[in-house]
Amino acid sequence: MLHLKEFLIFLLALKVHLILGHDNFPLNLYHNIDKNNSNVVISPFSVEQSLSIMALGAYGSTASELHDILGHDEDVLLNSLKIHSTSYITANRIYVRTDRKLNENFQSTIEKRIGYAVGESIDFKNGQNAAQQINEWVSNQTDQKIKDLVDPNVITSDTRVILVNAIYFKGIWKNKFPKDNTFTRKFYLNDKDFKDVEFMQLKTDFKFNRFEDLKASVVELPYQTENIAMYVILPNERTGLDELLSKFHTTDFEKDIVEKLEEQKVDVTLPRFKTEFNVNLNMALKNMGAKMMFSNAADFRNLLSSPEPIQLSDIIHKAVIEVNEEGVVATAATEGQLISRCAPICEYLVAEYPFLYVIYDRTDKHVLFIGEIRE
User: Fold this and answer.
1) Signal peptide location in the record (predicted)?
2) N or C: which end of the chain has fewer CB within 10 A?
């Protein structure tokens, strides 16, 4: 008798106030998501952590596909779950239906690496209560910034497991933008259209360079915490973001960009912005080669104590980023005009049209967040 596959729902939540890692997974993921010509932010590191957990519960071809897109073997996957930084925190939780249990070896292996229990029993029969319980956990992990990640309607009688990953990063600029320098000016959406937005401005020593192959300039804006910085990648032309994105996913972020930046005096003008972005990652991951885990052929026999046919239904990813003068949420701003007093040897980066940004941990080689501002 053919049994209907049970569904595994996989959810991600993250929040940031304000890799490339061992492979090109972060930029490949960003290249493949549906951006819909809007402001975007995702956390490749959060996705990578969660897929690593899924890979440890998978078997055979399902596991092989996950290893291939992540570019890691099992030892590296396990190591990726251990966070060495104190600048950001990550949390993982695996909710299992009350009549099911996680495989003891799977659970023990993960908990030894991350140092805390990940499994929690939950009654999926009442979708409203289950969603509320999960959403409260997500809200607590993200400083109450993400409150409604799980829709009660997606929890059905087929639901066996919901895996949630949350990451929280609060970055304070090493060199804060003076609030007295905040002013209103035009942000160009394209060659003709624009909107008035608040810009921050600061002239000091930053790492900077211009890249002819990308047709873009890059400036490093460091945070106070450890070796983490935001990299603003500004195309040379107002309409150059799409061309930049078509090339960017093939670069080695550390070697091709970060290591080629040189410290110099730079006058940086950057808009204050806040972005919330919610995306289903199913198609992006299928395009990258992870198709089996969404199909009837999925094999997650290492996940539950009593192996049964389960497959992944949806991977839902939500992120929030806020950037202002402090690097955290603030309300003060001053309207005025930009007055530049930069010496001839000073470089300029004026992000007055669509640009790309990356928040990168150089110590652990993680792309924590990547996004773009289009409006």
Assistant:
1) 1-21
2) N
